[in-house]
Sugar phosphate transporter domain-containing protein
Amino acid sequence: MGAEAGEPSSILSLAAAFSYGVASMAMVFVNKAVLMQYVHSMTLLTLQQIATALLIHFGQVLGMSKRKDFSLITAKKLLPVSIFYNANVGFALASLKGVNIPMYIAIKRITPLAVLVAGCMRGKGKPPTQVILSVICTATGVLIAALGDFSFDLYGYCMALTSVFFQTMYLILVEKSGAEDGLSSVDLMFYNSILSLPFLFFLIIATGEFPHSLTVLSAKAASLTFSVILIISLVMGIVLNFTMFWCTIVNSALTTTIVGVLKGVGSTALGFVLLGGVEVHSLNVTGLVINTFGGVWYTYARYKQKKKTPWKIQHDVESHAHK
């Protein structure tokens, strides 16, 4: 991962973005499949974080992965990252209980607009006009698609919108932390999982999930199908975290959110077919087309911007203008 500290190659940037897109698309379906059988979303998130921490720890012991020694100073700096991360995933999982996959993805696509607004507010400067217009186009597609949702669930929508806010804060903090502290994807993952656990343990006890959730989990584990889906969910949680941190450090917070938007096109199409619960409406299709156009337009606008500005200067502006 030596390239993380300096200028990343185009191949590395593309690999990070593509890996995150694939992992993110797969994770939505895996989590939805688990939650259809096991409703305790916070317990699921806790299990994913425990699996992540254990894998990184044993990976280091066996010499398969490298990370910096645990530092309390770094842990304090990364605590807000961890809080926002868990709030984002917690609200996202809660929304998946009541919202079908195409509409869940449509709501989450508002994140790039939120990242853009937050970036302007913290002094990153105004992005090029084409970038602004493409992100607005993407968000407009979301609103049109939402109007065609027959299975409207107010609770689910509120949970998803709250998740958008926390994801925005979280991605901006990851971009800042990775750039300023020289932390790798594995370092950020380990700190995030360790710092998450006390917060999550408190939540599952406070919400009453624990210990009933473990009793249900033990009973469900007798089913081979459920056990396989759960194991895939735990592994995909690790893969998704790694690729998200990697993409955000190598590229930027806004690029990571746009990759999320583009993978959402495939997820939405699959969402109409897999796992059920969706009625097709012309507004959904219209919104999806507008959203896709906005995502492609944004990619082109950012490519033009990168050709004009050397990566090092651009990344310094993105990461350190608000110091």
